[in-house]
Amino acid sequence: MANPSVIPLPVISNVTMVASSKSPSLSHQIGIAILVLAFVLGFPGNLFVVWSVLFRVHKRSVTCLLVLNLAVADALVLLSAPFFLRLLAGGKGWEFGDGMCKTIHYLCCVNMYVSIYLICLMSLDRWLAVIRPFLSQRLRKKKNLYAVMLGIWIMAFLLALPMPFYRSNQQPFLAKNVSIYLCNPYHWNSVNHELFQYLMETLAGFLIPFAFIVVCYTSVICRLRSAMFHGRVKGSLLILIIITAFAVFWLPYHVINILQ
What we know:
Layout (H helix, E strand, L loop, with lengths): L8 H12 L4 H32 L5 H17 L2 H10 L6 H35 L1 H7 L2 H18 L2 H4 L1 E2 L4 E3 L2 E3 L3 E2 L5 H34 L7 H28 L1
Helix pairs in contact: 1-4, 2-3, 2-4, 3-5, 5-6, 5-7, 5-9, 9-10
Protein name: Leukotriene B4 receptor 1-like
Organism: Clarias magur (Asian catfish)
GO molecular function, one term: complement receptor activity
């Protein structure tokens, strides 16, 4: 519900280079349009989800709490949109210093991991409900969910730690006799550091969770196709849409990282 409104990490990661390059103005306009749309629709939308779950839903289910966490993560990362809008519209590079350069990209990376692993948790919850319904009933306790969600947030903050380490605002260049600072990836002139960051992001942020999601939902589809379950076609289609959406949103970003 909340997740589609988040700014795609590929847009955030590459917007600095778009703004500081000699790209056609159309590129800037597309980037600005995406960011404005994401912020105008996504930020109030996610705040509404948070408000609804906290103040209007009296009996919060496991699904409600998962959606709440997704909305919080998305709302936090959408706060970075004004910085990138200034970057694109101003045409003066990154004007907010090295600290904000590292912090903004770190929070975006945290959001990426939180969103991905919450989707994995939803996949596991779905798998348990269909394949192991009695075990699902025993495990679907709020205290268990709180512990798992806390673990996901802590893991996301830890997995995102390389991002600020490999971001720098200390590489100016001259454009019309004005120094332009870029908040770009910086790997200390080391191929090993570059491989470490991009391979870690690809494995922890795509390959492992995607494989987990595919395994869970493949098993669910097989069970739904049995004669014991009704409405199996509709359920299978929804699952395929979820898997496809995950791949479409994240595969291009990680393919670019690998090619680099």
